[in-house]
Amino acid sequence: MPATSELLERICAEKPKLDCNVLEAVVVLSVEIAREGREGRKIGTLFTIGDVPVVLRHSRPLILDPLAGHPDDKKRISSHDARETLKELAQLDGAFVISDDGIAVSACRYLDASSAGVSLPLGLGSRHMAAASISKRTKAVAVVVSESSIVRVFNNGELICEIIPELWMMRRYNIHVDPEAFDRSPAVRLVTES
Fold it and tell me: Which of 68, 80, 82, 153 is exposed most, by the fewest CB atoms within 10 A?
């Protein structure tokens, strides 16, 4: 099974404008949100990465955009302050729109892309359908944080992988554990058709 970084590199290879470091930063942020939640409760959210003009055309604000009007250097996903702000805003309804180069362009967006031709496993909700649909109708990648604390990545309308945050974090950051033990671990599950 490919490691998470290999999966992200494959996605970025299909989308030359998308910086793989940005996609990885969004996945890391999503894993943090899935693990930490906010104020003692689990939360779900959705990030789109790339193809900003088209994603904005296929979405609309649910409330006044809390990111509008702020300078780009304050909204860069690599900034600690921006990441903490996004974690707070994740409690609100709607999706985040992240540019190819890692700027949080918009928040609290209702994604309005047709779901025609999108097929998901049973049990995934409307947030997952919105992510699959926007990734099918645009060149964006979508990352969903489920309230059940699983992170899912969508590309071209398909579920690419599921990440179990605790196992993923251990595999990535724990240097005291035998790495071969984690090669047999389901931290990242490739989604394939049976």
Answer: 80
From the list 86, 99, 2, the residue with the least C-alpha distance to 43 is 86
Residue 145: phi and psi, rounded to 5, are: -100, 115
pLDDT digits (tens, 9 = 90+) for 149-159: 999 999 999 99
Task: Give the per-residue pLDDT at 2.
Answer: 53
- Write down the H helix ranges in the chain: 4-14, 20-36, 52-57, 80-89, 126-137, 165-173, 179-183
Q: Which CATH number fits domain 4-186: 1.20.1250.20, 1.20.1630.10, 3.40.1700.10, 1.10.10.10?
A: 3.40.1700.10
Interaxial angle between packed helices 80-89 and 20-36, expressed in degrees from 0 to 180 and rounded to the nearest 10: 50
Burial 117-128 (b: 16+ CB within 10 A, else e): ebebeeebeebb
User: Any idea what DSSP says for residue 170?
Assistant: H
Confidence of residue 191 (pLDDT cuts 50, 70, 90): low
CA-wise closest residue to 14 among 141, 167, 192: 141
What pLDDT, on the 0 to 100 scale, is given for residue 131? 95
pTM (two decimals): 0.85
Provide the pairing of β-strand 104-111 with 59-61.
antiparallel
